[in-house]
UniProtKB/TrEMBL annotation:
EC number: 6.3.4.13
Name by which UniProt lists this protein: Phosphoribosylamine--glycine ligase
SMART domains: GARS_A, GARS_C
Record SUPFAM superfamilies: Glutathione synthetase ATP-binding domain-like (SSF56059), PreATP-grasp domain (SSF52440), Rudiment single hybrid motif (SSF51246)
Pathway: Purine metabolism; IMP biosynthesis via de novo pathway; N(1)-(5-phospho-D-ribosyl)glycinamide from 5-phospho-alpha-D-ribose 1-diphosphate: step 2/2
Length: 419
């Protein structure tokens, strides 16, 4: 099996790491990849994941058996449709299903039409109507840009001026939703799907705010934990009955089924689980904590997803816990410098800790340089989340570059019930 993975983040490094362990793999290519993936397979730095011609050419050149699409942008642009036309199997949704993530209006309408519990929302295209609506409200609401925004298209606020300014900026070139604000804790649930069947993976939570104690700006995610100590079988059953089963039924009815990963972002409220969003891919940094806990061969999982026999396949999952801490560049989630040299990173036993790179590159002398805002995810693995936390923070100490910073409290809010 020869696999091409699209993307350059720590999520794609984790996916590459997992494929590299597969007994089925005879070739592993990553486009464009990073310094970490380059140690496990062949990076194709000149192949742009959003350029289907380049991707198809690479598939032909390297005789690729299937493509695994990591990030949302190529999916929304229709890379899977183009690959299928060229006869190349791909893990990920076709363009019409990618709208479950790519359009908040589309996904809200889908949730409502299939009776999936979610916050009420009103759509606006017009600035005057939007402003009048906001001025008539009391209490916090959530504004969501319709299109993709890399985690920066959502504002939760009770300040009308802030909401109006944020919304007006979106309305210059997009539609928005004003959604009621929910309270609770968030969990991310990942389903593998083959287009007919699905299998759920252990529950994750990510830590989206930049500051300790969930303060500061929203980011793509500053850390993650898997599994989530609060979420027991009864809660998971409720989530599955109220939201996951109706989603897959709805997808079948609306012809949105696909082979790949579906991510459900829930707010766990006093009234039960409420669905905040779908993503049509693994989360980042959730993948970095979820994937090390999957014991099954990922080549076999990929085969089951592509050949519609997930019903006969039960992925094996470890009893361990994993916790990931993102090490970011100074200035992130605002503007930041790229190309900062990184000191040599220690290697840990894989059963204890893994360090996944994001958008790093290696120069001619073998020196690693940063290339993004979230630069590394340090993952600790252990018999419980406290141990995983200690190992993750130990690994964080080994990642050194000018201006490097991280949150100090990843996982903490879940620890009370853990032991
Ligand atoms: P989304 O992209 O829809 O998941 O929104 C990004 C983040 O905004 C979520 O992870 C939540 O932290 C927050 N958020 C979104 N919708 C709501 C809501 N209705 N109530 C409270 N917080 C929300
Ligand atoms: N961690 C959130 C996301 O991947 O969208």
């Amino acid at each position: 099996m020869k696999v091409l993975i699209l993307g350059s983040g720590a999520r794609e490094h984790a996916v590459t790491w997992k494929y590299s362990k597969s007994k089925r793999i005879t070739g592993l290519y990553i486009a464009p990849g990073n310094a970490g993936t380059g140690e496990l397979g062949v990076n194709l730095p000149d192949v742009d994941p959003e350029n289907s011609e380049q991707v198809i050419e690479a598939c032909r050149k390297y005789d690729i058996s299937h493509v695994f699409v990591g990030p949302e942008a190529p999916l929304a642009a229709g890379i899977v449709d183009e690959l299928k036309k060229a006869g190349i199997p791909a893990i990920g949704p076709h363009k019409s299903a990618a709208r479950l993530e790519g359009s908040k209006v589309f996904s809200k309408n889908f949730m409502k039409s299939h009776n999936i519990p979610t916050a009420d929302a009103v759509e606006f295209k017009d600035t005057v109507k939007f402003e009048t609506y906001i001025r008539g409200l009391t209490g916090p609401v959530v504004i969501k840009k319709d299109g993709l925004a890399a985690g920066k298209g959502v504002l939760v606020s009770s300040d009308p001026e802030e909401l109006i300014a944020f919304g007006k900026d979106i309305l210059k070139d997009d539609t928005l939703l004003v959604e009621s604000c929910l309270e609770g804790y968030e969990v991310s649930i990942f389903a593998l799907t083959d287009g007919k069947n699905y299998k759920l993976l252990p529950v994750c939570a990510d830590f989206k705010r930049a500051g300790d104690g969930d303060t500061g700006l929203n980011t793509g995610g500053m850390g993650a934990i898997c599994p989530v100590p609060f979420v027991n079988t009864a809660i998971l059953n409720e989530i599955e009955e109220k939201a996951i089963k109706p989603t897959f039924k709805g997808m079948e009815k609306d012809k949105l089924s696909y082979s790949g990963i579906l991510y459900f972002g829930f707010m766990m409220t006093d009234e039960g689980p409420m669905l905040l969003e779908y993503n049509v891919r693994f989360g980042d940094p959730e993948a970095q904590v979820l994937i090390p806990l999957i014991d099954s061969d990922f080549g076999n999982i990929a085969d089951a997803m592509l050949n519609s026999n997930l019903d006969e396949y039960n992925p094996r999952v470890s009893n361990n816990s994993a916790l990931g801490v993102v090490v970011a560049a100074e200035g992130y989630p605002g503007s930041y410098e790229k190309g900062i040299p990184v000191s040599p990173i220690p290697v840990y036993p894989e059963k204890d800790a893994l360090i996944f790179h994001s958008s790093t590159s290696e120069d001619e002398y073998g020196k690693v340089h940063t290339g993004g805002g979230r630069c590394f995810t340090c993952v600790g693995i252990g018999p419980n989340s406290l141990k995983a936390n200690a190992r993750a923070y130990e690994a964080v100490k080994g990642v050194k570059f000018k201006g490097a910073w991280h949150r100090n409290d990843i996982g903490k809010k879940f620890f009370t019930n853990d032991q």
